[in-house]
Design brief:
Layout lengths: L1 H15 L4 H15 L4 H13 L4 H41 L6 H31 L9 H21 L5 H15 L1
């Protein structure tokens, strides 16, 4: 039954993702590709749409995948699956473990996880950029417009950071990316 499959896959994603939505992208990718729910191109579009819409990326992605596979009930099943672990964990932390989070060893573990999570997010971003420019790794098809857009966005973001000495707004970057995509594609 598709509803149970969606719920179970996204429950696992919600349970084993640490560090928020961007940390969940590799797990979502693995899950939707292994289930045959999406291909690489659809997955890239789903991630872009999930980042562009309001709300947490992991919830948006679950809702998108669920809706694409089984309509509104599928979206509800996948969304419930992905938020249930966090909901239960937050309740447990609030009730039972509030004091434990202040413990220096727990803080040390959490600080040690941050660089690992940054590596996972960076690897996912690089993989997605390469896939957009080179196509599927099985059959490489160079995409010049995607390379030009990627280069322009990187130059814009880095140049802004160097000149203004502050980060470029992610929201503005998403809007500019959308405009470039509409113009080029």
């Amino acid at each position: 039954m598709i509803y149970l499959s969606l719920f179970w896959e996204f429950l696992k994603i919600g349970l084993f993702t640490f560090g928020g939505g961007y940390g969940s992208i590799p797990l979502i990718r693995e899950s939707v590709l292994s289930q045959g729910w999406m291909n690489e191109e659809m997955l890239t579009n789903m991630v872009a749409l999930s980042e562009s819409t309001p709300g947490p990326i992991m919830v948006n992605a679950a809702t998108y995948v669920g809706a694409s596979q089984a309509g509104i009930l599928g979206a509800a099943a996948a969304t419930l699956g992905v938020i249930l672990p966090a909901f239960i964990i937050v309740l447990l932390v609030a009730v039972l473990l509030g004091k434990m989070l202040k413990h220096k060893y727990v803080q040390a573990v959490l600080e040690g996880i941050k660089p690992c999570l940054m590596g996972v997010i960076l690897a996912t971003g690089v993989y997605m950029a390469l896939t957009a420019v080179l196509g599927d790794m099985d059959s490489i098809a160079f995409n010049l417009p995607a390379l030009i857009i990627l280069a322009a966005l990187v130059l814009l973001s880095v140049g802004y950071s160097l000149i203004r000495k502050k980060e470029f707004s992610p929201i503005l970057l998403i809007i500019i990316s959308a405009v470039f995509g509409i113009i080029v594609f």
